[in-house]
Task: structure prediction
Amino acid sequence: MVIDLPSLEEIKQRVHQEVAGMRNDYMRLLNPTPYKVYPPKKCKPLILQIQVSVTDDLYNFVHELWLKEAPIPDLSNDEKTEKLS
Result:
């Protein structure tokens, strides 16, 4: 089956609509409520197949890399914090 994909602008509009509809407690930068996602039961065999374990060294390397590269929002600006909470 082949379908036409929406334009990039249409995709962006859809994402903005979906994000605008999310609860504020999910979107706040400081102490957000975890957004839980539960996969369908029929996906469980596939999930079990793709689960892998990693060595401590690899986990620590990726974790350190993430800490170095992950953007940390500036919460010192009260105006930004008020809008997001």
Observations:
- Residues 8-71 form one domain.
- The chain has five helices and no strands.
- The mean pLDDT is 82.
